[in-house]
Automatic annotation (TrEMBL):
<keyword id="KW-0805">Transcription regulation</keyword>
<dbReference type="GO" id="GO:0006353">
    <property type="term" value="P:DNA-templated transcription termination"/>
</dbReference>
<dbReference type="InterPro" id="IPR023558">
    <property type="entry name" value="Trp_RNA-bd_attenuator_dom"/>
</dbReference>
<keyword id="KW-0804">Transcription</keyword>
<dbReference type="InterPro" id="IPR016031">
    <property type="entry name" value="Trp_RNA-bd_attenuator-like_dom"/>
</dbReference>
<comment type="subunit">
    <text>Oligomer of 11 identical subunits arranged in doughnut-like structure.</text>
</comment>
<dbReference type="InterPro" id="IPR000824">
    <property type="entry name" value="MtrB"/>
</dbReference>
<dbReference type="Pfam" id="PF02081">
    <property type="entry name" value="TrpBP"/>
</dbReference>
<keyword id="KW-0694">RNA-binding</keyword>
<protein>
    <recommendedName>
        <fullName>Transcription attenuation protein MtrB</fullName>
    </recommendedName>
</protein>
<comment type="similarity">
    <text>Belongs to the MtrB family.</text>
</comment>
<dbReference type="GO" id="GO:0003723">
    <property type="term" value="F:RNA binding"/>
</dbReference>
<dbReference type="GO" id="GO:0006355">
    <property type="term" value="P:regulation of DNA-templated transcription"/>
</dbReference>
Length: 73
């Protein structure tokens, strides 16, 4: 994924956590959102965000396809 790629995250249960991780020598958490079932978030990779962590049941749509997350909260 490039710097300006987007992902769409759709929560399949209440309490799905979306956590943004920083770029650089030390990877750190820099932003967190909590989604409830049915809520959708459109997120973008930027010069500050290099990765995202999704905790909970969610559908993640990317340029590469759809991924299902079923991690425990």
């Amino acid at each position: 994924m490039g710097q300006n790629d987007y992902v769409v995250i759709r929560a399949k249960e209440d309490g799905v956590h979306v956590i943004g991780l920083t770029r650089g020598n030390d990877t750190k958490f820099h932003h967190s959102e909590k989604l409830d079932e049915g809520e959708v978030m459109i997120a973008q990779f930027t010069e500050h965000t290099s990765a995202m962590k999704i905790r909970g049941k969610a559908e993640i749509q990317t340029a590469f396809g759809i991924v299902e997350s079923d991690a425990k909260k």
